[in-house]
Write a structure and sequence with these properties.
The chain is mostly beta strands. The chain contains two helices and 42 strands. The chain has five domains: 93 residues, Immunoglobulin-like; 102 residues, Carboxypeptidase-like, regulatory domain (Immunoglobulin-like, Sandwich); 77 residues, Immunoglobulin-like; 98 residues, Immunoglobulin-like, CATH 2.60.40; 100 residues, Immunoglobulin-like. Strand 21 and strand 22 form a beta hairpin. It is elongated. Keywords: Signal.
Length: 545
């Protein structure tokens, strides 16, 4: 009986034993497999001519599998011919729905989609080039893509070639040929048929080969490229293509309506459709206009209006809107506390030429300047007049400027009731203490502009000093020498902007109007990232362009 039980147990265990034997696994012990799969055969063969098949097959020297193959494989030139992927133990097969184009050189690149099944080593340089005609197209172009603002290389940026006769804009069209930039911003497009092309580039974050995402960086070559030889140095500048703003979302509370825009704006104004209509509003962020329910409109009346939005280049866009508010339930239900952000933050050392920026989370309806004071001794406050207060953004931002002869430290005090919002609530009492820095606590950066550098614009140029967050700290216009003084210790960059149209501001690019962004030149010195480290009592006076 015991012997029969052993036989039965053995028979029941056989499927489990065979299952374990069939699994592919790294043998215990020994060196780890670090050798990637090697391509041993392809159909068609690499650089084969006159290929008439509808399938492409790859065979490797070990078992492989694929990962996101439909997203990672790239085929140039692009067309609408779709394909079916079938994995095989030692490779992969692509079967196209329709015959391939005649007399065309195809490049099929599998990127990092193919890996071995043991250690997932990536099959490198997995690419097949073949032709359906008697010759292989051998022309190509290369270049570098840098970011417009930082002037640093852009990784993974798609650069494509489009037919100059395309009627569809690049926002709705895939390129015929394309390549992506490496970590140094370099790209190379190969095996291109001779002809004329427009050169465009874009971020392509969703990997669909179409520039259809608002706010993606774009780049383009000004003129059509006649590709009758190999080209190098087709360099591009990638800039934010915001296009015309549009209202993408409406955010309603009991007392407000937020109009969210597709791109940031520099300012706006409201034009009403009916006489007597008016609304309080302000720019809550570069992409959000906040409107407030009028005090005399408890009902959900409709107010027709037009938002005239202005971008950083001064272009105006009109957005028609019919504004209404939800039925009023509770005035405080969705209301945030009325608050203010003050720059510089308390505790920071500050210059005796005081400048405080107060940013409110909604517009101020009533301001009592006598409740704002600056002092070292509370019995002797520094006198402030209306000239010391500058309002902007529909009374949503206040700058207080005042030069003082105080030493060591001072206080900025805002009494309760100094600022009352358009909704009737007040900012809580504030008392910030600051340290007054002496002259040796600051640094200085100065330099000269070489006339040859700005020869194309004469004296129409801007020199800007940027902090580590790329925020403009100081700027000057059209001066052959510049000096940025009283700088707090930190890292700074200096850049020169060529003001091509002389409007005293830097204009971004516009791909719809085929306008390149105005050129930026960064000071070539500093550390590896171009920053100048400013310490206390620091001076750099040969910061020349």
């Amino acid at each position: 009986m015991q012997f029969r039980s052993l036989i039965l147990f053995f028979l029941l265990s056989l499927p489990l034993l065979f299952h374990n034997c069939a699994q592919v696994a790294q043998p215990p012990g020994g060196k780890k497999d670090t050798i990637p799969p090697k391509l041993v055969r392809s159909v068609p063969t690499n650089r084969q001519l006159n290929y008439t098949g509808k399938t492409v097959e790859l065979e490797f020297d070990e078992y492989v599998n694929t990962e996101n193959i439909q997203q990672k494989v790239t085929i140039t030139p692009q067309d609408s011919n779709t394909f079916l992927v079938r994995s095989q133990p030692l490779g992969i097969r692509l079967t196209f729905d329709k015959p391939l184009q005649p007399n065309t050189t195809y490049t099929i690149d599998f990127a990092d989609a193919i890996k071995d099944i043991t250690e997932r080593n990536i099959a490198t340089n997995t690419k097949v080039v073949f032709s359906t005609g008697p010759t292989i197209d051998s022309l190509g172009l290369s270049g570098t893509v840098v970011d417009d603002e930082s002037r640093r290389p852009v990784l993974g940026f798609l650069v494509g070639l489009f037919s100059p006769t395309d009627t569809l804009p690049i926002q709705r069209k895939r390129p015929q040929y394309f390549a992506r930039t490496d970590s140094n911003g370099n790209y190379r497009i190969e095996n291109v048929k001779a002809g004329q092309y427009r050169v465009y580039g874009f971020d392509d974050k969703d990997l669909n080969l179409v520039n259809n995402t608002q706010g993606e960086r774009v780049a383009f070559r000004d003129s059509i490229l006649n590709l009758n030889r190999n080209y190098e140095g087709i360099n591009l500048v990638a800039f934010r293509n915001t296009g015309k703003p549009r209202i993408t979302r409406r955010e309603r509370t009991d007392e407000t309506l937020g109009l969210e825009l597709s791109s940031g704006i520099a300012g706006y104004r409201l034009r009403y459709g009916k006489p007597g209509d008016t609304l309080v509003s302000f720019l809550e962020s570069p992409t959000m206009i906040r409107l407030f329910r009028p005090a005399d409109r408890a009902a959900a009346d409709t107010i027709p209006l037009t938002v005239v939005a202005q971008d950083s280049a001064g272009n105006l866009t009109e957005l028609r809107e019919r504004v209404y508010f939800s039925p009023l339930k509770s005035r405080a239900k969705n209301r945030q506390a009325f608050a203010v952000q003050i720059v510089p933050a308390p505790g920071e050392p500050i210059d005796p030429n005081l400048e405080f920026t107060l940013t409110f989370n909604r517009p101020v309806g009533k301001f009592s300047p006598e409740l704002v004071s600056i002092y070292a001794d509370s019995t002797k406050p520094v006198p402030l007049t209306s000239e010391n207060f500058t309002w902007s953004n529909s009374f949503g931002r206040l700058i207080i400027r005042k030069s003082v002869n105080l030493r060591d430290s001072l206080f900025l005090r805002l009494e309760k009731g100094a600022f009352i919002s358009v909704q009737g609530d007040t900012v809580a009492r504030v008392k910030n203490e600051y340290t007054l820095a002496d002259e040796e606590s600051f640094g200085l950066i100065a330099g000269r502009i070489n006339p040859t550098t700005v020869a194309q614009v004469g004296d129409k140029y801007i020199v800007e000093l940027l902090d580590e967050k790329n925020v403009v700290v100081q700027s000057v216009y059209g001066t052959p020498t510049y000096s940025f003084a009283r700088l707090k210790p930190g890292r700074y960059r200096v850049r020169l902007i060529l003001d091509l149209n002389g409007n005293r501001r830097r204009d971004p690019g516009n791909i719809q109007k085929m306008l390149q962004p105005e050129p930026i030149i960064y000071y070539p010195g500093g550390d590896e990232d171009g920053f100048i480290l400013v310490k206390q009592n620091f001076e750099l006076t040969d910061n020349d362009f």
